[in-house]
Prior knowledge:
Layout: H1 7-17, E1 25-28, H2 31-40, E2 45-49, E3 52-55, E4 60-62, E5 67-71, E6 79-82, E7 96-98, E8 103-106, E9 109-113, E10 116-121, E11 130-132, E12 135-139, E13 142-147, E14 155-156, E15 159-161, E16 164-166, E17 178-182, E18 185-186, E19 189-191, E20 194-196, E21 207-211, E22 215-216, E23 219-221, E24 224-226, E25 230-234, E26 245-246, E27 249-251, E28 254-256, E29 261-266, E30 268-269, E31 272-274, E32 277-279, H3 284-287, E33 290-293, E34 301-303, E35 306-308, E36 311-312, E37 319-321, E38 334-336, E39 341-344, H4 398-406, H5 427-435, H6 451-474
Parallel strand pairs: 1-2, 2-5, 3-6, 4-7, 5-8, 6-9, 7-10, 8-11, 9-12, 10-13, 11-15, 12-16, 13-17, 14-18, 15-19, 16-20, 17-21, 19-23, 20-24, 21-25, 22-26, 23-27, 24-28, 25-29, 26-30, 27-31, 28-32, 29-33, 31-34, 32-35, 33-36, 34-37
Antiparallel strand pairs: 38-39
Helix pairs in contact: 5-6
Bound molecules: calcium ion (4 copies).
Residues 389, 391, 393, 395-397, 399-400 line the site of one calcium ion.
Amino acid sequence: MRSLREFPIVVMVLLCLAGLSPAAVRYCSTVVQIENATRNYIPGDEIVIAAGLYEMEAELQFRNGAVTMRGETGLRDDVILQGPGMNVDAGPRNIIHVYCDDVTIESLTVSECCWNGIQIHGENEPDRTVIRNVHTLNIGERHIKGSKGSIANAVHDVLIEDCLLEQNKVNTDGNYIGGIDCMVLKNPIIRNNEFRNIQGQTGEGRAAIFLWQGIVNPTVEGNVIYDCDRGIAMGNPSYTNPDNIVGGIVRNNFVSYANEINLELVATVDLKVYNNTLYGPSGSSYTRCVSMESFVTSGLELKNNLIHGDITDRGIPFVSANNITGTTADPSWFVDVASGELHLTELALAALDAGQALAEVPTDIDGGPRPAGDLPDIGADEYGSPIGDANYDGKVDGLDYNVWSLHYQQAGHWGDGNFNGDALVDGLDYNIWSLNYNFGTAGAGGQPVPEPAAALLLAAGVCAVTRRRRSRRSRP
Ligand SMILES: [Ca+2]
Ligand SMILES: [Ca+2]
Ligand SMILES: [Ca+2]
Ligand SMILES: [Ca+2]
């Protein structure tokens, strides 16, 4: 009988014979280690990168199968994979290539290269790429590229979420530049990302989110796009086959200050565009806030969209319901139009409870439930949802409490902690906040509101209310 000590060796031998090895964590703190780990990893491995700035010397290529590459700290700006510059025509011109299934890239920054930040090679049919909590900065062509393989063999289940794609320097190499540009995807999800200032040399860059050619059942939701040349493009006039965009939904997105078009819809089949807020200031961004092209388009529905600007439909038929267009949406309806902060204020009366109930939109851009009140609001934000979220981050936590306490006993708006719409930030608002405490946080469902603070503040709030009533009564 074999001893127990021999057992692990036997397992290892069997795994090796079967072509399998146990997954390993490959810890990297130098460029060479990152390159070697990417080249030599075994399916199931994790590549963990220490905080630091890494000046890349070669393009990273994932070819071996399932792997996760992530920054060690979880903070995406702690690990920076940096090329020679977005305007420098020198290698590495791309930072990361994905050729195989099940690659996850998480919690790191990809920056400063003249072609693509991350390329998903559709010609190799790599399924289930996940790009999460990644910052892409100053990328010369596409921040995330999905190149075209065969439409019959689409890339399945790409997920891009919680990323920041931005540009903070001028591109000097024309307008061939954009955010996410992908083809031949089936069931892609692009959600809760932020895009800032992705612009070509003369303001004619591609969209922040650009899907076309063989896109089936896309979900584009909860994204904030600000000051990019184009916002969301579902298709492009250069490709008008009926397999361009088939099915899918675009919901709960904020898009503002696009130079040309906030939302472009070309040759889509059965696409739903629900509850988006699109703000086009004067210029072509206003007159083409939504721009449609191609009579291949069919089954297009626009509902509950809050649009400051026009829909240029070019005679293309579409179902329209409960949209607000033109100049009806006043800047005062929004928290801060100039910075792309398009959450509603209490002044957006014509948008509040003016939408129609849609089963496809059970939440808003903050993850708050819809409807709040009797009916859904028009646009991506449901005003007052989630309850108690003063800073609009979708979580009800101590940060909102801080906002409330800073404005305690002052006049204020929702963003000041006045959650019940009366004249004052006070204990009643604290009660509302505390009832929804932990919504959207990791502690949801478990953590009670901190008791001592709650008790003290409740007492303070009640006392304050009582005092005010008394003082009112005591007035002559
Ligand atoms: Ca409502
Ligand atoms: Ca909301
Ligand atoms: Ca919050
Ligand atoms: Ca109040």
